Amino acid sequence: MAIASPAAPQTLEDATIAVIGLGYVGLPLAVEFGKKRKVIGFDLNSHRIEQLRAGKDLTLEVADDDLRSARNLRYSCDAEDLSAAKVFIVTVPTPIDQTKRPDLASLLNASETIGKVLKPGDLVVYESTVYPGATEDDCVPVLERVSGLTFNQDFFVGYSPERINPGDKSHRLPDIKKVTSGSTPEVGILVDRLYAEIITAGTHLAPSIKVAEAAKVIENTQRDLNIALVNELAIIFNRLEIDTQAVLETAGTKWNFLPFRPGLVGGHCIGVDPYYLTQKAQTVGYHPEVILAGRRLNDGMGGYVVSQLVKKMLKERLHVDGARILVMGFAFKENCPDVRNTRVIDIVRELSDYNARVDVLDPWVDAEAAEAEYGIRPVAEAEPGAYDAIVLAVAHDEFRAMGASAIRALGKPGHVLYDLKYVLGADESDLRL
User: What is the pLDDT of residues 313-369, one digit of tens each?
Assistant: First the structure.
């Protein structure tokens, strides 16, 4: 076992923590630590800081009562306030760009911000999803360059990948087992003990940072591939005129059949993370085939849905050009306001290419946020009896509660109802994925 440098923190007891990035991942983390020790919640978005100071979380990930219970948590958008911290936890987004390549800009900017206040003995822990090697090969050099300090001598790093599932009220941060790692064995133990303070489900100390990074990125790659398989099965069964849901339910009677369902694959994780792994693989001379094939299939599901809808409308002698179509749901998943990388946008844009007039209805989504990011403003209410077609794209509880008759009432006589999420019974819609 390597001997820790004298500058390495021997304990993190009473250390102030700074959480960099207060989105879906960072805020729950800051709140949980804020119940036990001093925490600085930092975000560049001053409006976000103002909302949190007012006790409101517009992402709906943290309840108002939980915000109030974190008495040791203070919010700031002033980078100078970070100098009071000994531990820095980075929870900024790591998206992909338009060419589907990893975009580390926010991660590297956060590293630069930390580097300006980094002190001997400090610890930086990254939670953002990256490809294996990014923490030590991309982030650490920035910390060294800006701070003038030496890695694993003056400062240390860890990696503990986030596992937040937006909108999931059953699996909250303390209830999800946490993977931890450190740049030395001793630092790994410190990181593990730190998270054990707030994670009731337990922790798993990985043998290295690269192992922890790789484990995170394959979690969602595996899910992506499984969904791609059932999406392809749905396409096959549709051509065979077999009900996909009935097939999956029947196959699911076997104990080891995995209960995946077809659908649109968006969000900040499943539709993004596989590209981090494939890009890294290509840099070492390997071209992934299975992973990228799954990505191509999932990315094409919006176009497939629209092609099925258009065919059905034409069979029913409904003109697509100029048709009014209602898309129910715009968030990337049910019961969640998150629109990051939502693939419902593919349906909306494809229908617009047919010159259809599309209304989007989503009670969870902030209309201004959707308009700012996608140029689409969801309607406050759908007009009864106005639509030639209805696409039930997201299984919000509000839509389930409506039932088939209330949803049908939004359409014109003879309209087409496409249920992507199996919200309705097999005989209550005209199309199912």
Answer: 999 999 999 999 999 999 999 999 999 899 999 999 999 999 999 999 999 999 999
> From the centroid of its chain, how far is CA 359?
25
Q: How far apart are CA 153 and CA 138, in angstroms?
A: 18
- With b for 16 or more beta-carbon neighbours within 10 A and e for fewer, the 402-415 pattern comes to bebeebbebbeeeb
Active site amino acids: 269
Q: What is the pLDDT of residues 239-278, one digit of tens each?
A: 999 999 999 999 999 999 999 999 999 888 888 999 999 9
CB 292 within 8 A of CB 221: no
The amino acid occupying position 44 is L
pTM above 0.85, yes or no: yes
Please choose, from the candidates 18, 10, 28, 151, the residue with its C-alpha nearest in 3D space to the C-alpha of residue 88. Answer: 18
Name the DSSP letter for residue 164.
-
The one-letter code for the residue type at 4 is A
Backbone angles phi, psi at 401, to 5 degrees: -65, -30
Looking up tokens 């699911």, which residue turns up? 252
Q: Where is 392: in which H helix or E strand? A: strand 387-392
As a whole number of angstroms, the distance between CA 302 and CA 342 comes to 11
Rg over CA atoms, the chain: 24
